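Protocol step 4 of 6: structure prediction from sequence.
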Amino acid sequence: MPLQIYKSSAGSGKTYTLTREFIRLVVRAPYQYRQILAITFTNKATAEMKNRIVSKLGQLAANTDPKYAEALLSLLPASFTLQTVQQNAAKALSLILHNYGEFSVCTIDSFFQQLLRSFTRELKLPYGYDLLLDSNLAIEQAAALLLLEIGNNDKPNLTKWIVSFALEKWKEDKGFRITSDIESLGKNLLDDIVWDYITNNSNFEEGLETENEMQAHHFDKLKQFLNSLQKIRRNFENELIEKGKQVLKEIEENGFTQKDFKNSSANIFKYFSEGDFDKIANPTNTLSAIFRDNNIEGWLSKEKSKDYKLAKFVRDFLHPEFMAMMNFIEVHKKNYFTAKAILGNFYSYGLLNALKEKITQFRTEQNIMLLADNSKLMRSVLQGELAFIFEKAGLQYKHVFIDEFQDTSTSQWDSLAYLVQNALSQNDEALLVGDVKQSIYRWRGGNFNLLLAPAKHLGEKVSPFVEEKNIKNLTTNYRSGQNIIAFNNAFFTTATKLICSHSDWQENLFIKEIKTAYEDVKQEATDNKGGYITFETVTKNADSKPTEDTESKNEISNENAEINKYDSAESWGSAESEVAIPEIEKAVINRIEKLIEKQGYQYADIAILVRKNAHGAQIAKSLTNAKIPVISSEALFLTGSPTVRLTISVLKYLNAPLESIYRTQLLYQYLQYINELPSPEFLHLVYTDFNLQANDPKSIFATKLPPSFIQNQQFLARQPLYELVENITAYFELDTSNDPYLRRFLDFVLECLTNKISRLPAFLAYWERLHPATGSNLTNAPSVILPEGLNAVQILTIHKSKGLEFPVVILPYADWDTIELKKNTIIWADANIDPYNKMGTLPLKFGKELGDSHFETNYQNEIYQQIVDNLNILYVALTRAERELHIISKPLKKSKTSKDTASLKTIQDLFVQVLNHPDFEYSDSKKITGDYAAIESIFFAYGEPTLPPNLNPDEKISEQADNTENDNHTNKILPTHPAKSSATHKIKLASNAQQFFMLLDPNRAQAVSMGQKVHQVLENLQSPERLQKVLRQLKAQGHITQADEAPLNKRIEQIFNFKEVINWFNPPQGWEIITEQALIDKGQQYRPDRVLINENRAVIIDFKTIAPNAPDGIRKNHHWQVKNYARILTKMGYTVVLAKLLYIGIDNAWIEEVNI
């Protein structure tokens, strides 16, 4: 049977297709569910697919979705009837639920692990091994073990190499520390392809019997190669240094200075004489023109050219010397840059094989396996004598489905190809689904070429089953409004055309492949009309200054700088040392306020997508300061909690009690926790309090901390890690029962114990690694997990948003680099030319100089890959929105030349060029042309502001919602195709889980806390006479306290002063009270607080807790929500005669009627 491949663009029903194919098979043969393997990319995708399959089978079994049943019937044999579908769906559902462990929908890593654990003995794996998810920890431990070998008499060559490495760093003024270099390159060993490069290195020749002989041979060969590389670099640089000195001497002896030459062009000789060779790869425009055109006149200005002596000196000496020097560079620079590129990582490279051995040693000693080991073991199985393992798996799984195929790595596919081949050769089914345009995980090994050209790249096992007619494109976008789809179609079509024709990349051998990757970018829309898109560049405020993303440190005026050095600086706002742009954050806040107050959206409808964690942290902080509820990974990091920061400070102090900085940090965190803000003078006194021991009761330090802690420090220092943390929480009276951050921290400590991190120094080192001082990478930092349904703006990275959708998407900081030259990217490449081909595949740092070396092809390929990466990231970001998409970028860069106008160095450049391109069909006659240096900002809009999902599209949006869009912009691109918004999407209601915001806003906490309790009483109250009984029940259940009873009695009495409220609880005869019952509409559940029913008449009552100074948009949302209840009840056959909202404030209550 041919292989089925679905290329599925964003929002085109990828999960729907996979679910349908799975259900088709199990409805055709219910017991076949055991023989289907469905592989997804993430745990979340696994859960979603399982839920969809179970839910849809349930609907088929109950016959509640006849349209789906009829569509499925058309895919089944002709003998099937709707009754057969219903019966088989019920059977399949029962089998799956009763044998859930055999329901094989899983991630690729969990599938490999399941397979490996089944054959532990055959694979000679350690029995009962633990899986270490943090593979970087293994690299760090292996590096530490490697450095312990220094001075080992059995390994003299290893010691010499490490010492030489340290000395070489010292010569380059980079210090002696080499650990970070080893760890940085060592992380490449987690890629099993790199592991193979090292394992199969030609250094290790057969015939060398002992380990010492092999090691000696290895380092001898490395040393010979190193010497040859250093000689090439040294000869080249010495030649330029001597030439530079010689020319400078002649200039001076002839009475000239470097200022005599145009644009200080003679400085090139000074740079070379001092050993500064950056200008080789980056010459000035003046020097480039002189060499390119052999232009003698280029050395002198018009005025200086009249100086006969100077002109003669240039003609007879300077210019010929320069041309000779540049010709020398042209002849030898490829060899020079090749040697320099290899030398950049060569010492670390020489240690990789030894590091590989230490990783193996660490795994064996700790009885663990790394997640990165999965693919290596699987490939070794297939290459060895244990292929029967896959044969056995092939017998179990007849059908194989693979989701997100563009993110599958080559090594993973090598293993999975066996199962796919087995299924197809047995005339069973295999299905691959993915989208090349959403391939954003290359750094994890994802190879989109497998999907881009399957017949070419799927390999000899599967390629024979690939037929062009079975490669299908899912072209309809079911997610977004028509305007958003139209905008993205036009934008990416134009963008790919610009990229592929750009002058910077005309010589790139790979760039044209982008057209192939994006050839299916145009999507068809459904009847979901509307959609609103804006792009704007903010205007730089002359009065504002860039702000570094750091914590406020309690805002102790000018004393912050002194106090900061005692603070551990582990705030949830920690971020990269990047400059934040206040104008962007202000634009985000303004946009959110318009959406909430003028258009009626809820906070939960809005998602802010960022490229970097640093920007997410800064925006989260700004929104919180603006009293906008927000959920972000940064806000949920454990370091956002004062109690966790205090606990870490105690641990650091106990680990090194003689360190003054830790002692002072602990005191600072504790005083901050109990709201005693210390002065800088006091902290400095504690820091310099050397005369007294820290545990001396007379010590300034000791007088401020809990006495029980001071008295028991030695006892605590001897405690096991988990017990130590528990005791700290007890001594400092930290509430572990009601603090989600502290509870999660205790769980994190347990996780560390399972990962063999049981000693305090190791734990603190691990914590520091997860929370680097710069905050540059907090991806793996522990955080609390909140329930879904909070009414808050979500902030997440673009990578984490993949597969998700939101009514409104805001994309700030849309200006990241198209090619990240500053990133520490390593390319593994073969030189294929003598003498550089003697060491096999080598690690090279990506940079511009690589383009002038013998690795030019590898450089061009990396350029292409990075452009695709960043274009794909942009595609993912722009395709998450259902109704509105708002893109915000930094102020336009002032350019002096029109040449920069055509630059595509950043994503902002790409937006500017696309919106100004004649082929982009959604701009009006106001184009951005030529030199746009004078333009302060750009604004583009397409479509009209929309209403929230499922609301009446005829309701008027405040005219101010779009009249203010164009303020403060000197150049505007206005919409030419305005479209009315649609209301076909399902409403998404947030649940009443507000606890998180109590951590952020005390005023809101007060309103929410009492308001929720009043709300809870009213929910449980059938009649006023039962009030005291309800209060007793809630108190017994722990929902309220004794102290709550009096204010609750008072509040309820206040509410019952409204006569009509009495009727809601004691209605006239014939009316039935229904509380908190679900209304079902299109698969969604809605729960009004109270509905009164009399035959076919209905009254709706809803209770709402409201904070002080809540924006009007919140109450407008509440009215629309009640209107939705009325619409559903009307569909059910009821006539809604009345609808009321009871608002519960901090100290008041009022009723509003909803117009039905």
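Step 5 (inspection) to follow. The chain has a mean pLDDT of 80.
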